[in-house]
Amino acid sequence: MKVLLRLTKYLRPEVKLMAVVFVMLLLGTIIDLIAPILLKEIFDSGIANKDIALILALTLSLIGIQVIKSIASFIQGRSQELVGQNVIFTLRKELYNHLQRLSFRYYDKAQTGQLMSRMTGDIEAVKNFIGFGAVLMLLGLLTFIGTIGFMLYLQWKVTLISMSTIPLLLFVLWRFNNKVGSAWGQIREQMGRLTTTLQENISGIRVVKAFAREREEEGKFRDRNEHNFETNMQRAKLEANAFPLMGFYGGLVFLIMIWLGAVFVARGEMTLGTFMAFQWYVWGVIWPLNMLGWQINIMQQAIKAAPRVLEVIDASIEIATPDQGGTDARRIGGNIVFEDVSFHFADQDVSKDKGVLQHINLDVRQGEIIAVLGATGSGKSSLIALMSRFYDVSGGRLLLDGIDVRDYELDGLRQRIGIVPQETFLFSASIRDNIAYGMPEASQEAIEWAARKAHIHAFIETMPHGYETLIGERGVGLSGGQRQRVALARAILMDPPILVLDEATASVDTATESAIHEELLEVMKGRTTFIIAQRLSSVKRADRIIVLDKGAIVQQGTHQELFEEEGFFRKLFEMQDAAAAR
Ligand SMILES: Nc1ncnc2c1ncn2[C@@H]1O[C@H](COP(=O)(O)OP(=O)(O)OP(=O)(O)O)[C@@H](O)[C@H]1O
């Protein structure tokens, strides 16, 4: 329940609309309470005194107040939907914006399917309560209390005796509320898992098919689907047990009232008009109680869904611009110093585990081309990730032009480092928009210049709509090498003082790779460039080569110096030389 109270923060800007909802609700309830009185008067004053004019006036009044009630419920319905939609709009926006700011550390652990289900189903469940369930509960409460009040005023004995089954009804509701909550909690969690299975399957469909695992994947989905089905059936069973019983107790209220009312009328202790009014009023007692079951359902769904949504919003943004605003990153020229840098991932214990990077000391001058070599898993990508603050160092300092990376304004810092990552991601948009992703305002000339440097311009020209050609999700429609070259053009276009090529030409054939490197020589001029590569051909232009082994720098020097030393570089050279000779 506390979580729902936290959500009231989103209701604050909606105070005016909520006031409209409340006033309309009140108006509707008052009309519902007055209407039976008019009916009573038709019997007790109109029919009893044979006053036709009074009967007509009262009937017209009944029609009139029903018209007013309809208008009030129209305004109330529209306003309450607007409140719900506004809240959900803000919440969804806040959640999405927060997701943009969360660090890599968060995404290392998060499951995409779970996040998607929180953005959709869970938020919808919260909306259903805020925009509908809560208002209905309030309406029910007002109607219930008001009706009982009027009935007590008109004939307290009949009222009290008729209501004798209500404690039983409340007991059934209380038990239902206790049990159905945990079922809804499981259902929301299972929906998250189901979405995860679906999302992973679609993203990995090529692997599924390549390994002919369709049947197993079907089985995996079926298991989770069945699980969800069973929990839903358990919930339905709870409803099936509780709702008819509630209906029965509600019906008893009505029957007792009819019987007792008839007896009281016969005994002259109750007028016929009051009896007729009671028949009307009794529904003001029964419907709020009967509807309470559904309202509990809506509320419990929201109670279970809200923490899932708030958990994402509460996840701390670990990497951000310093509070005081950070240093302007435009001053970054490209001098980089790693000062005794160590790095651990989130799942590692800094005091016990050996870091992914340990005591890295490295001084890179502006404009230098540094090649980073090392066996797979030696920490090359991690070294690079620290510069853009995808992760923060666990020990030591990383300085860009003499200033700790943590002191820079974050967006500016990242814009000054052009990265071509190992795994390229392209959006389902035109090739032009993909290249201009970091600089949407770039001119066509600039985009073509970058594409030429990345050796993709000629290919784009051959496509049906040139730069406007739409490429599918994740760049489907392009080969691995073409995708890499689009990503390369994207980084070049940013004109960054620091360029990072993480296996950026690994998917390109050797001839194209060599041509790209020739072109890149001009692009790299004046920029500090890191090239991570396995092929020696890609690193031959480097001013300095660094060899990493298990997170530590084990060799450092020029191509010639390292060739003359025993070690990883020489072995790699000999292996690739022998392979080339075969
Ligand atoms: N998100 C992560 N969480 C925990 N450990 C990770 C994570 N990413 C990488 N590692 C581990 O950190 C080590 C260094 O990884 P890194 O990606 O930096 O290596 P690399 O030298 O770039 O490898 P490759 O040449 O295969 O790309 C590896 O042992 C890897 O298992």
UniProtKB/TrEMBL annotation:
The chain crosses the membrane at residues 20-39, 51-68, 129-152, 158-176, 242-266, 278-298. Keywords: ATP-binding, Membrane, Nucleotide-binding, Transmembrane, Transmembrane helix. It is found in: Cell membrane. Residues 336-575 form the ABC transporter domain. It comes from the Bacteria. The keyword ATP-binding applies. CDD domains: ABC_6TM_YknU_like. Residues 19-301 form the ABC transmembrane type-1 domain. It is a multi-pass membrane protein. It holds the Pfam family ABC_membrane. The keyword ATP-binding applies. One of its GO terms (molecular function) is ATP binding. This is ABC transporter ATP-binding protein. It comes from Paenibacillus plantiphilus.
